[in-house]
Each structure stands twice: as C-alpha cells, then as structure tokens.
Specification:
- It contains no helices and 58 strands.
- The chain has 617 residues and is an all-beta fold.
- β6 and β7 form a beta hairpin.
- The protein is elongated.
- About 6% of the residues have low confidence.
C-alpha cells in the first residue's frame, strides 16, 4: 500500500535475481510439490507468517511440447512455465530451479531442463514436482533434447553430456566444444551447433565436427527435418546438412534468422524465428525441404528467438519485445497471449475498493500494466494502456471508488473496471510518494515540493526551502497535516498554513516509508531500523539484526505494524512497544505491502517477479 512510501527506481533494482538455495554436489535433490502458487511456511510459527507466492511470467526462454498436451518453457525468473493451447499460464517455482536454460520432454513422461545457475540437470513432473541432479564434470549446461539410449543429451562447457531418467550421467569432453543447440538426427546420432561448425556425437560419445567453408557465420538453432537432414539457422541464411556432412545454404532475404530457433512443423516444413532488428514488423519464417522461403510478418511480434512445435500442431515462440508467448498456425495465423499471467515486474500494491488487491507492473516484458488479483481465488487480471510508462506507487483514491498511481512524470487513475486515465504534470520531475488527502485530493511529492492534484487533474504546487528530497507521504493522525520523509529527516506540512516543519534525529537514517500508526504516532522505516515519531516530534528508534533496508510499512487492526524487509528477505512485524518478529523466506525480497480484504497481508516481490501473501494471525 503505497500510501506513505516511495518506491525505489527499478531501472537499477528490478533485474530478476535468483533467491535459490545452493545445491549440494552430487546426487538428487527433491523438494515438496510446488505449484504456480508456492506455499512456504515460516519456521517461527505454525500459521502466523505462513506465505504463498503467486509467480509471474518473467521472460520465457526455450520452449518444448509437453507430454500433457501443453507447451512448457524455461523462465528467467528462476521458474518453469506451462501454457495451455488456449493460453492459460501456470508458473512453477522451486528453490531447485536456478538459471533454467534448455527444456525438453523426456522418455519418462517428465520435462527435463538445464540449470546454468547451479550446474545441474532438473526434472519436473507435469504436476510440478522438481528434482535436480549434479555431477562435478558438468559446467554451465545449456540446450537439452531427448536422444538415443532413452536418455537426455545436453550441451555444456567443453563437451556434450548425457543423463538417464534415473539420473546417471555420462560426459564426453572435447577441446573446442562450445555448443549452442542440440537435436537427434535421423541417423540415431545427436547433432549440435558449435560456433561456426556443426557437430555430431554418436551414442557411444564419438564426436565429429564439420567445418565447411559455407559455415562462415555463427550457427544457432538446429533441428531434424522431415527429409532426414538437419536444418539450422546462421546469419541471414538457413542451412541444411546431410547426415554425411554435406552442407547447403539458403539465403533468406528480408529476414534475419541469426542464431535463433528452428523446428520442424506438423506440415513437413521447417519454421524459424525472424528477429531482424530494424525490420518492423518482425515475424516467423517457413522454409520447405526444397528451400522455398515464406515470411509471415505480424505487427505484435518483437524479438522472437526460440520456437517449438506444439502438441496442437501450431508453432509456439517467445516474443520478448511484446507479449511473452505467441503461436502461429501452419497457414500463418498468429495468436498473442498478452501479459502472461498478469504479474510483470510488480512494484506498488494496495487493497482496492472492490475487495481485490491491485498492483503496478513496471513491465519486465516491456509492457507496463496495472494488475488485479482476487484474494480468494488468485485470479489475475491486467490492464494495459499506451499511456502507461513507469507505474510505481499505487493507492486507493480519496473517495474510495478508484485507484491512483505514479507513472513516470505523470499521475494515473484506474477505475475498478480497468479504465485508465493519465494526467501529465507541468514539470518533468518524477512523482515519488503519493497519498489520498483528507480534502478529497491526491497529494504527492516531487523534487523540492509537495503537490496537490484534484480528481480532475488540476495541479497546485507548494514549494519551501526546507523541502529538498521528499519521498513517502501520508496523512497524519490528526487527519489534517501531511507527513513525509525528506533526506535524513521527517517533515510535516500543514495544508492550511502552507507551513513546513522538519524533525531531525541521529537515528533518522535514509527513511523510505511512513504511515500513521494505531497508537496516534507516525512510524517510518530507516535503512536498518524502524522509527517512531510523535505528533510533537519526539523520535524513537527500534533495531533488530533482521532489519535490512525495509521499504514499506503499514498498520494492522490488531495494533501492530508490518513492514517489507527488502534486503532481509523477510516480512517483519513490530508492536507499538517495539517488539519485533521476523518472518524470513529466501525466495522473497519484498518491496511493498498492503492489507487484503481476506485478512491476509499481500506484498510485491519485484526481484523474483511475484506477488506474495502472508497470514498475519
């Protein structure tokens, strides 16, 4: 609930980080059955502090058809995703998923993936159960595919690896191997791209590299064609290599397959991605076994890279610059699936007037949005607008009918039905914190000033020499004055007299959030403490080893306050007497927090691209 706090800029802070446990060397590791909503309980209580995470989509990587009729993919948010032919997304989170890269269906009916972050091979069942396997010889595994010996074959640093469904490894090292993609050929061998060469490895591990003059560019994706040959992408060409090593190149005009993906379609042709930078729109290409090329251009396609043949006969691909996942039929009809599951770099969060929880998405996909999640069903809806640029803090409006949010150098409003209106500001300064004022207007901070905006967008600016770098802002206990954070001080602004008073204290150190507490005082977050200030300016500070860069704080109706402990990877609770309880979770780095209509607390988990829920009782 961003009433009374400022959101840090995610331009430098929202890189998707891995909060995954380091795997022990050797053997298999198995965690409990995760799902798109992953429940993790705090060790400090049986119910109080129990958490659930609703994972976002992030940026999809490699895709593969699954044995369950869906398309599965790796995700940069350290998750594995699944999308149905109808476009419904499910995200599986587990601490054993660490830098997933390649993914393929295995002979055992499970999905197998490579973990570059932990130098391991993972297996995930269609219900989401994750197991990982490690061996000391495997470093930085990449692409993976089913192959001979009823096993999975994968690329890794300095060689090609093999793993059985039982987790037994074989690794075949060879100098000069830095393979990118791998597939099974019609000859029963595995074929892989390797810089400017094509490699072949037999089931017994014998490696041959084909270095033809025609291979003068980096070779990217590779797949087996219906004609018994191997097909690959390379610069502005599509290549074909026979199982005897004969290479033929086919130029592709007005497209750039580069090092992108290629796959055999259900129509017997080869399909590839076209991410020709500067060419708008981009699209998907088709080449027949005889070398005839057709390009299918589509407006909402931007930077496609990986592609797979889905169980439904369509071609599915990642669409990084627009919607995360899209599909195309063999006749060239495209379908986009906007926003994935609706969680896309969440920042601010607040309980809405309609009983739902609303949040601002800064848009890891490049498409900012405002999201809504039902606290009872977990159903997520997202709303986009071309006017959305950088949504951050979000609050319920003063009349409790709509929601207001910061949006780059403007202020936005969204109704509970999803209608978005954006009000540009007369200056280019970016709003920081905002709050619903007691006068029915919106109040927000900007560099060197306090600003009031009416519901129709009329702006009045209040400047004062004492106001330097105001951040979070909130209505005081008297329901008249406005309190705000300001460098290493706490400020009070009187709207009637326009007077400003700053309160300083050695314990006030980089305050980021402020709220009116249940005890009639103001409470705020410091870098390593929780502060309290009375209406007369008396400051108290409460410390605990667990407090590390808390970024949001809210009161609860039981007389306590709860805060998002960002760098402490936890949610904290403090009583008005200063008693602190910490609820850690290695998978969270919470940014904002609010009370939901269901009695739980909800928070944004921007680094891991998820929405969290914690039981406070």
């Amino acid at each position: 609930m961003n009433n009374g706090r400022i959101l840090p800029s995610l331009a430098r802070r929202i890189l998707i980080a891995a909060f995954c446990a380091t795997l022990a060397a050797g053997g298999a590791n198995s965690m409990g059955a995760p799902a798109w909503a992953t429940s993790v309980s705090s060790s400090q209580a049986t119910k109080t502090g129990s958490m659930t995470l609703f994972e976002g989509l992030g940026t999809p990587g490699t895709l593969t058809p699954g044995p369950d009729g869906n398309v599965w993919f790796t995700n940069t948010s350290d998750t594995i995703g699944r999308v149905t032919p109808g476009g419904r997304f499910t995200i599986f989170s587990d601490r054993l998923i660490n830098g997933p890269a390649g993914i393929a269906a295995g002979p055992d009916g499970n999905l197998w993936f490579t973990n570059r972050g932990s130098d391991s091979i993972g297996r995930i069942t269609t219900s989401g159960q994750v197991t990982t396997y490690r061996t000391s010889s495997v470093r930085k595994p990449g692409a993976i595919a089913e192959g001979p010996g009823a096993s999975l074959w994968f690329t890794a640093r300095g060689g090609i690896g093999q793993i059985t469904p039982q987790g037994a490894f074989a690794f075949y090292p060879q100098p000069g191997i830095h393979a990118l993609a791998i597939t099974e050929g019609s000859d029963g061998n595995m074929w892989f791209t390797n810089g400017s060469s094509i490699g072949r490895i037999t089931p017994t591990g014998e490696i041959t590299l084909f270095k033809e003059p025609a291979l003068d560019r980096v070779v990217g994706g590779i797949t087996a064609g219906s004609d018994g040959n191997l097909w690959f992408t390379s610069g502005f060409e599509i290549g074909r290599i026979t199982t005897a090593g004969l290479v033929t190149m086919f130029p592709v005009r007005q497209a750039n397959p580069e090092d992108g993906g290629i796959v055999a379609g259900s129509d017997g042709n080869l399909w590839f991605t076209d991410d020709n930078v500067g060419d708008s729109p981009q699209g998907i290409g088709r080449i027949t076994p005889s070398g005839v090329v057709t390009l299918f251009k589509h407006g909402p396609i931007d930077y496609p890279n990986q592609i797979t043949a889905g169980p439904d006969g369509k071609l599915w691909f990642d669409n990084y610059g627009y919607d995360p996942i899209a599909s195309v039929t063999t006749s060239g009809h495209f379908t986009n699936f906007p926003g994935g599951n609706g969680i896309d770099g969440p920042t601010g969060i607040t309980g809405g007037p309609d009983g739902n929880v609303w949040f601002a998405n800064q848009g890891l996909s490049g498409k900012p949005s405002i999201g809504r999640i039902s606290p009872y069903t977990g159903k997520i809806t997202s709303y986009r607008s071309a006017a959305l640029t950088y949504p951050g803090a979000i609050i319920v409006g003063p009349h409790y009918t709509d929601l207001w949010f910061t949006n780059g150098d403007s202020i936005g409003r969204i109704t509970t039905t999803g209608k978005i209106t954006v009000f540009p500001l007369p200056t280019a300064d970016t709003p920081a914190g905002l709050t619903a004022g007691p006068d029915g207007d919106i109040w927000f901070t900007a560099t060197g000033r306090i600003v009031r905006m009416t519901p129709t967008g009329v702006v009045k600016v209040y400047r004062n020499a004492a106001i330097t770098s105001p951040g979070a802002i909130t209505v005081g206990p008297d329901n008249t004055s406005l309190w705000f954070t300001n460098d290493d001080s706490i400020g009070r602004f009187d709207p009637a007299s326009k007077s400003v008073h700053l309160y300083t204290d050695p314990s006030i150190d980089g305050p980021t959030a402020i709220t009116a507490g249940p005890d009639g005082n103001l409470w705020f977050t410091n870098f390593s403490s929780i502060g309290q200030i009375t209406p007369t300016g008396v400051v108290s500070s409460f410390t605990d080893p667990s407090i590390d860069d808390p970024t949001a704080i809210i009161p609860l109706n039981d007389g306590s306050l709860w805060y998002a402990n960002q760098d402490g990877n936890s949610i904290g609770r403090i009583t008005t007497a200063g008693v602190i309880t910490n609820y850690p979770n290695p998978n969270i780095s919470p940014l904002d927090i609010t009370a939901g209509d269901d009695g739980n607390l909800w928070f944004t988990n921007a680094y891991a691209n998820s929405i969290g829920r914690i039981d406070p009782y």
